[in-house]
Amino acid sequence: MYFPRRNPIRLLLALCPAFLISAAAPAQQPAPAQAATAPGAAPQFDVAAIHLHESQPHEHNSIWSSPFDGHFKAENMSVVMLIQWAYEMPDTRILDVPGWARSTYFSIDAKADPAVDQQLRKMSSDAGRKVKEQMLQALLANRFKLATHTETREMPIYALVIAKGGAKLGDINDGGTVVNSWRDHLEVQGSNSLALLAEVLADELGRPVLDRTGIAGRYHLTLKWTPDDAASAATSNSSAPPSIFTALEEQLGLKLVPQKGPVQVLVVDHVEMPSAN
């Protein structure tokens, strides 16, 4: 998940065994995070410490979360970034967000009852990830008073398609799920790598990107380009990478086609600064 940003972002979305290890947990005693879980409902965090984070230049935005335990940590994350993770929704499809929810950063350390650890250890990685997403959704609703709904809207999009000459994806890769994004290059690997790539490109380009390649599977994809604001300086350097559109076609055999189409979006109805610990 990636977003127009003032600092380089490296947000690792791998679930096995964990995401990106963040800094040490806040020292303050966590406060109760959720009410008791109703029978049959998804588990919730028992305690969660949430603190404002003073973002530093070039600091990573980091999440640590294993699908096999009830511990969740985040460092230097905005509310929009947390919504992206909790709802698997790219930034370009999260609408009606107040400015502070993009510009204010938080650190979170949330833990569930040990019984949740036992429950998650019996699940697959994908199932555990879904449960952790639901747990973060509940935390956002409880502490940030987040309320949302989904809609389908007609929007300008890019369709990710196979370029003339065919895709250049390499062999199917059996590794974990990884997403790394920097200002001028990215690395993607996941159970549906092309759909994951489309999400990363959407946040890089500021417009929804829909995967219409018809290619499923787990690939290890890398892409390197010259950002628009550096393109003029790179023209005299024959070894500089091309634009992101050209790089996508040359390096991966894929193409972005501008279109309009129906896009599912997540509309934020209400959100507040978090309640005190």
Structural notes for this entry:
Keywords: Signal. With 277 residues, this protein is α+β, with helices and mostly antiparallel strands. It folds into two domains: 45-144, no CATH class; 154-229 and 241-264, no CATH class. The protein is built from seven helices and twelve strands. A five-stranded antiparallel β-sheet has the order 1-2-6-4-3. Strands 5-12-7-10 form a four-stranded mixed β-sheet. Strands 8-9-11 form a three-stranded antiparallel β-sheet. A hairpin with a 3-residue loop joins strand 8 and strand 9 (185-189). Helix 1 (79-87) runs antiparallel to helix 4. The longest helix is centred in the middle third of the chain and has 19 residues, at 125-143. The two termini are 28 Å apart. Mean pLDDT is 83; it is low at 1-39.
Descriptive key words:
alpha+beta, four-stranded mixed sheet, 12 strands
Number of helices: 7
| Percent strand | 25-35%
Categorize the overall geometry: globular
> Largest sheet, order of strands side by side?
1-2-6-4-3
Protein structure class: alpha+beta
Low-confidence stretches: 1-39
Helix content bin: 10-25%
Q: Overall mean pLDDT score? A: 83
Biggest beta sheet attributes: 5 strands, antiparallel
The radius of gyration is 19 Å
Distance between the termini: 28 Å
User: What is the β-strand count?
Assistant: 12
What's the order of the H and E elements?
EEEEHEHEHHEEEHEEHHE
Domain unit count: 2
